[in-house]
Amino acid sequence: MKTIGLLGGTGWSSTIGYYKTLNELVNQQLGGYHSAKILLKSIDYHDIMNNYGKNHEQIAQLLQHELLGLIALNPDCIMICCNSLHKYYDMIKDNISSTIPVFHAVELTAKYANENSCHKVLLLATKFTMEDGFFAEILEKHGIDVVVPIQKERDKMQKIHDELMKNVVTQESRNYFRDLIATHKDLDALVLGCTEYPLIVDHNNSALQIIDPAYLQAAHAVGYALQG
User: Fold this and answer.
1) How far apart are the two ends of the chain, measured CA to CA in Å?
2) Domain co-membership, 110 together with 81
3) Are residues 111 and 83 part of one domain?
4) CA distance 21 to 14
5) Pair 131, 191 in one domain
6) Is the N or C terminus of the chain more exposed, i.e. has fewer CB atoms within 10 Å?
7) What is the pLDDT of residue 165?
8) Domain co-membership, 19 together with 42
9) β partners of residue 122
10) In the sheet where 145-147 sits, what is the strand order?
């Protein structure tokens, strides 16, 4: 079994979900007491989080430093446990001389959406990701139409996200997302473009098919780790 490298702590509440999903997927395939071989580099997210929408170069430099630290540990593949950071990975990937594969959350989302005839999707993400447009732009390049919530909804979602970063999950938040998703039930699917949103959005409160980039990353990483 190959070793999966996680760049986590981005934030910590959602990194727990990556760890859990990887181990569940390995055990489903191998049975017994098998679990995933994981290297977790959990970073202090504060400086990155505070620079979203303000200093792109600073975030890119911070990500490069942390990613090189993970690469030095020599995992067989890598997952960045934050959808927003894939914008900055695209900015620095050519600076990193590594052959270790990185499973790109947004590219995997586009591939899955096309393979499953999800031609028009609702993007639920952090306020930065929804307003910056990098996630939507990649999907649209793959022929997928993207709908983003209006300003008032984005502001409310950001307040909920701040709670989720501290692992605060409330029924009120679950109900808010249920009602928001229901207003877009004519779409093909929703994309959980924030890695904290699986904490409160699931098939019990979503009227739409859910595309979870974190799960797609984990599934591809496990497939790679177990191949051969």
Assistant:
1) 9
2) no
3) no
4) 11
5) yes
6) C
7) 94
8) yes
9) 147, 190
10) 145-147, 120-124, 189-192, 209-211
Q: Do 33 and 88 share a domain, yes or no? A: yes
Identify residue 37 by its one-letter amino acid code: K
Q: Supply the pTM of this predicted model.
A: 0.94
Report the chain's mean pLDDT, rounded to a whole number.
96
Q: Which helix (H) or strand (E) holds 108?
A: helix 105-115
pLDDT band (50, 70, 90) for residue 97 = confident
**Structural domain containing residue 191:** 106-212
| Residue whose structure tokens are 């504060």 | 46
Phi/psi of residue 198, nearest 5 degrees: -60, -15
90 and 122, same structural domain?
Answer: no
Count of domains observed in the chain: 2
Residue 58's CATH number: 3.40.50.1860
Residue 228 binned pLDDT confidence (cut-offs 50, 70, 90): low
Summarised one tens digit per residue, pLDDT across range 150-202 is 999 999 999 999 999 999 999 999 999 999 999 999 999 999 999 999 999 99
